[in-house]
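Query form — protein Major facilitator superfamily (MFS) profile domain-containing protein

QUESTION: What is the three-dimensional structure of this chain?
INPUT:
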Amino acid sequence: AMHEGSGAQGSATGTEEAMNNRNQGMGILARLCCPTTLPPPSYACPGYVVPACLKDTNYNVVLMNLLCIMFGLAESIWTGTALSAFLYILTDDSNTMVGYVEAAMGITTLVFALPVGYLADRYSRSAVIAIGGFVNFAAATATVYATYQGAEENGSWKQHYWILLVAMCGWGVVGGIVNGPAQALYADSTPQGSRSMYYQYLFIGWGLSSVAGPLLTIVIFAVYSNDWTLYMLRNVIFAGMAGEVVTGVMMLWFRDDAALNEGEEESDEEKGPDAKKKEEGEEEEI
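ANSWER: The structure tokens for Major facilitator superfamily (MFS) profile domain-containing protein are given below.
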């Protein structure tokens, strides 16, 4: 038994060293955004911080669930009707110009999917996700500037239109990173036997927040004004941008070293009390 304990301890030490070496490969950006002062990789979030279904869950898993809730809420506020209506009025009722901007986001996501995935696998997923956070900030700044100036009718509408077109390309990159490297790191941070359960939590949160976004938009129109002017639509877009900035901040804090090794089980802190009791009972029988 002592030999087995020593072997297990040596294996754990080897695993820890391997994860530390893996963390050394993180880029400077990831190190700045993911400082070692954070809790240990095996840190399990307490129940008073997160919903009960995520109690004592891996750090990356909790962070990704919170990110998806905020991301779904923010996008559903501004990327649908509000943006299309704003562009339609800005471009003097041109459906074609609206279509170009709407298509830019999807095309950019498609074009950058492979490069982003390669960089995440080759170097660091958390670093790529953090870069996506900074792209988020740049796209949000450009969107706020263009919609503000467009609503104030300062300068040519074409200038604001092209800024929004570029900003939507940035949002396409952000969406590709959230749906690509971020979800890949999420999968690596969940035990294989429970992965479907965690994805169920993820998509439920995303779906509910995507429904809440349009409802919040209705509230904004009801409280302020139901006039679909550039000024009013701009305020709705600003509300969405506030959520996007929070999403960008969350993207800076993922950790490669919190991912589980292939086939690795949850730590004792991450296992529920029922699982712990079952293991203790088996040890007593032995």
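ADDITIONAL NOTE: The longest helix spans residues 195-223.
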